[in-house]
Design a protein that fits this description.
Mandel_Rmase/mucon_lact_enz_CS, single chain, magnesium, lyase, 10-stranded mixed sheet, D-galactonate dehydratase, TIM Barrel, binds magnesium ion, 15 strands, Enolase-like, domain 1, 382 residues, alpha/beta, 3-stranded antiparallel sheet, 2 domains
């Protein structure tokens, strides 16, 4: 079998799908994207095609190493996201060629169903409480929300109180009937993270995510010393070689590699295995589309330490396109009481609605995140 063609489709709300064709008619789909830089990743994917066209798509390990090591410069958000989407499509082809789901190729199921959680938006407590109520009707009991809006390097007591009050009201409204993680989103500086973690501790969040930015990872063990709240991070780390340093330093209890950013299934299975050796849980990051979600699930279903899967099916967080809009076999993605079953079809298990993808790609907007500023006019982390 030989790879014949790579085609990319940028689609709403902010995603990109990749179709890899072969001379035997088997087609694989991947999702190579960095939110806000889709065109840059698209260029990288097409630059990699020189290493792929004419090659056997089943030699995933070799093609991965060629893409990673063959170009001298390596790593980072753009290149590792391009490799990630290509890698997913190669696994899809291999599974389809052999007639089995990808998790069978990775050693088989380690669990029968995977626990998922839902993002809940809104900056006011009332909006969040309302959002949780609606999602509970759909069977969810685990959620994640932002911890703060713009947050200064040294912030006022009023801002700290507002962030804590918001979480207190949510715990008050639902008691122990729900669990939630709080995403600091890299908006909080190390000293303020220390203060917030202490004040949030009584509300027992499942975890605090990105308590500080990944580039300040040296603070993770120090922050962990000061709190009983489990700390999570990983959506802005792109390879084993970055995760290695975090595992060695300690402090992070849950790693959240993104299957579309950290080198794909090939790399994230290895990151998951490294995490298990350090007694660190796995909760893959996934605010993306159906191929990214399916890739996460294949890793979750073969990783003993996978505890939670992020997903955004039907929450209207993604404006202009929903996760299942581009999927024909929607029934396979059914979430019951917060759990999803292994995708049963060969390969990644996603039947892509190609006509819909082509139509949606015709007028795809260039999504970028908002640019926030502090009251003094300086740039704030989003
Ligand atoms: Mg996050």
């Amino acid at each position: 079998m030989k790879i014949t063609k790579l085609t990319t489709y940028r689609i709403p709300p902010r995603w990109m799908l990749l179709k890899i064709e072969t001379d035997e008619g088997i087609v694989g789909w991947g999702e190579p994207v960095i939110e806000g830089k889709a065109r840059t990743v698209e260029t990288a994917v097409h630059e990699f095609s020189q290493y792929l066209v004419g090659q056997d798509p089943r030699r995933i390990n070799d093609l991965w190493q060629v893409m990673y090591r063959g170009g001298f410069y390596r790593g980072g958000a753009i290149l590792m996201s391009a490799i990630a989407g290509i890698d997913q499509a190669l696994w899809d082809i291999k599974g389809k060629a052999l007639g089995v789901p990808v998790y069978e190729l990775l050693g088989g199921l380690v669990r029968d169903r995977m626990k998922t959680y839902s993002w809940v938006g809104g900056d006011r407590p009332a909006d969040v409480i309302d959002g949780i109520r609606k999602l509970r009707e759909a069977g969810f009991d685990t959620f994640k929300m932002n911890g703060t809006e713009e947050f200064g390097i040294i912030e006022s007591s009023a801002a700290v109180d507002a962030a804590v009050q918001r979480i207190a009201e949510i715990r008050d409204a639902f008691g122990n009937q729900i669990e939630f993680g709080i995403d600091f989103h890299g908006r909080v500086s190390a000293p303020m993270a220390k203060a917030l973690l202490r004040e949030l501790e009584p509300y027992r969040p499942l975890f605090v995510e990105e308590p500080v930015l990944a580039e300040q990872a040296e603070y993770y063990p120090r922050l962990a010393e000061s709190t009983s709240i489990p700390l999570a991070a990983g959506e802005r780390m792109f390879s084993r070689f970055e995760f290695k340093n975090v595992f060695q330093a300690g402090g992070i209890n849950i790693v959240q590699p993104d299957l579309s950013h950290a080198g794909g299934i090939t790399e994230c299975v290895k990151i998951a295995g490294m995490a298990e050796a350090y007694d660190v849980a796995l909760a893959p990051h996934c605010p993306l589309g159906p191929i990214a979600l399916a890739s996460c699930l294949h890793v979750d279903f073969v990783s003993y330490n996978a505890v939670l899967q992020e997903q955004s099916i039907g929450i209207h967080y993604n404006k202009g396109g929903e996760v299942l809009d581009y999927v024909l076999n929607k029934e396979d993605f059914k979430i019951e009481n917060g759990y999803i079953k292994p995708l049963p079809k060969p390969g990644l298990g996603v039947e892509v609605d190609e006509q819909r993808v082509i139509e949606a790609s015709r007028n795809a907007p260039d999504w970028t995140n908002p640019l926030w500023r502090h009251p003094d006019g300086s740039v704030a982390e989003w």
